[in-house]
Design a protein that fits this description.
The structure is a single chain. The chain has 241 residues and is α+β, with helices and mostly antiparallel strands. Helices cover 20% and strands 38% of the residues. It has three helices and 13 strands, in the order αβββββββββββββαα. Strands 2, 4, 6, 8, 9, 11, 12 and 13 form an eight-stranded antiparallel beta sheet that branches. It is elongated. 30% of the residues are buried.
Length: 241
């Protein structure tokens, strides 16, 4: 076998190995959302005796830096000892996190969106037996130049009572990765925007741009307002979203 032929084979094997590593690495980032977490969850209205609805969100997600796309698994479960009765789950996005679709669920009309939110879907869960759960695949985008939050209320089927609400809870990172293919975000972490302008990634190293003080203050005010959206709706609890 000639040296040229041997070199060609070696080069092909090296390329194939590199491609396999890249594919495996991408798959791991896309699929590994960590354990589910109920962080930011709270009881709003008392559920019937023996019924205890809760929700779970992934401990971490990954946002594609070029498309801003991400996937989130939202889970509702009944930790009680009795059937939940007919319930529904809402999946609502705030600020930089926009919910684009939830498999098996319907989009909320603009007039039904909670105050301060930008998108939302309603999922008819039906009856959950004691100890059972149901998961939904949420397609979303995350503008890494902003903070981003998600909210999961669990309600009666008519929306008159909310047994449980997780959030609005933030996803974010204090260490942006603008030069990487994807940025990992952690649940319960306020996002540090990667760019002051909103539509371009910042330079790294010396001379990098920083978030202006005014924009940072506005982000904090926005975060506080989003967290109060349910409180504003409480007096009109008898109305659906």
């Amino acid at each position: 076998m000639s040296s040229r032929h041997t070199t060609t084979i070696a080069g092909s094997l090296l390329t194939a190995s590199f491609s396999a590593v890249m594919i495996l690495s991408f798959t791991a980032v896309a699929d590994d959302q960590g354990p589910g977490s109920g962080k930011g969850g709270k009881v709003i209205d008392e559920a019937p005796a023996g019924v205890k609805p809760t929700t779970l969100l992934p401990a971490k997600i990954s946002v594609d830096n070029s498309t801003q796309k991400t996937a989130i698994t939202a889970t509702v479960r009944n930790e009680g000892t009795k059937d939940s009765g007919d319930i529904r789950l809402l999946v609502v996005g705030f600020d930089g996190l926009t919910v684009k679709g939830v498999k098996g669920c319907d989009a909320l009309a603009d007039k039904d969106l909670p105050k301060g939110s930008n998108s939302g879907f309603v999922c008819s869960v039906g009856k959950l037996a004691a100890g059972k759960s149901k998961s939904y695949t949420v397609d979303a985008t995350f503008d890494l130049s902003k903070t981003g939050k998600i909210c999961l209320p669990v309600q009666t089927s008519d929306g008159k009572k909310t047994y449980w609400q997780q959030g609005p809870v933030p996803f974010g990172t204090t260490n942006p990765s603008p030069n990487a293919p994807a940025t990992p975000l952690l649940l319960g972490t306020d996002n540090k925007p990667v760019a002051p302008g909103g539509d371009q990634l910042p330079k790294t190293g010396a001379g990098s741009d920083v978030l202006p003080l005014g924009a940072a203050g506005a982000a904090l005010i926005s975060a506080g307002a989003a967290g109060l959206w349910w409180a504003h709706r409480r007096p009109r609890r008898q109305q659906q979203f």
